[in-house]
Sequence to fold (307 residues):
Amino acid sequence: MDYHLLRKIRIGEELCKFVKKSLFELKEMEQMQVLRDMETRRKLEEDICAWTVPMEYRIRTKKNKKINKYYERIIKKNILLDEKKNRVCKVANEFTIELMEACRYEENCPFSQVYGAILGGCLQNRLAICHKHNSIIIFLFQLDKNNEHDLYYAQKMQERILDWICKYFKKRRYSERSLWIIYGKCEFNILVAFTYEKQKYCQFNFKENKQYLRLFNSGEVEKIAHNLMSNYNQYKHAIQDAQIQDIDFLNQNMSTVFTILRTYYIREDHIGTETRLAILVLKAWKYYLLRRKMIKILKSFVCMPKI
Fold:
């Protein structure tokens, strides 16, 4: 064989080995980074579960109780959404009923896998402002954890349900895992998630006048939060055992399923009345700036609430 040709072959083989080695090292570095991120997230989750707001950081102004009460009345009257006048729950139920009715007349409809729904976001947190309020509707389906193909099924089912809702309302989906819809003059962020067991508090109840979506009282929120925390390890272990490409999906799913924990940790007796009132004022101010397109001022305040 020609010497120069043999040399070129050897150089090519060495180059292939180098590229393979580089790609392997790059993949290994990416895997290590994902594991580090998981560990950081795990520590944060543990810290959040055990955390309470220190008294010195709570917003309290005890110097003049009359003034405090006056501003509390003003904020609740002019900013906080009045639950008695709130029609979002009613519209959310109408939205859900329409989907369920449409699903009945369609063969192999993906929405038929949904066993329940729950309201989340600022409405459930009782931090909706009267100027601008929307809500999150989370549709849930059950996943068999013992099925080896369950994770692939879960991702596909989530996608199929969102696509079906898009198609039904003739909307375009701009996000991979959610959908914004305006229905009955209310804005809804639609999410779909799986649970390993059917959550009783959000199952469709066909006996109580089709009131599928509602706001929970403080006692119900506490019971639901404790129930969710008792199931925490099941979701945590699934994330730890998952392939790298599935970790983000499982994290997002867990965050969606555990949405009531946000409501639990932002209760009045947990963070204080004044803190909640301050959040309402900041949210109203944020909407004021957005409405006047004062984006530069808004961006300079990185702590603006998203609750």
The CA atoms of residues 88 and 287 lie 19 Å apart. The two ends are 73 Å apart (CA to CA). Strands lie at 114-120, 134-142, 178-183, 186-195.
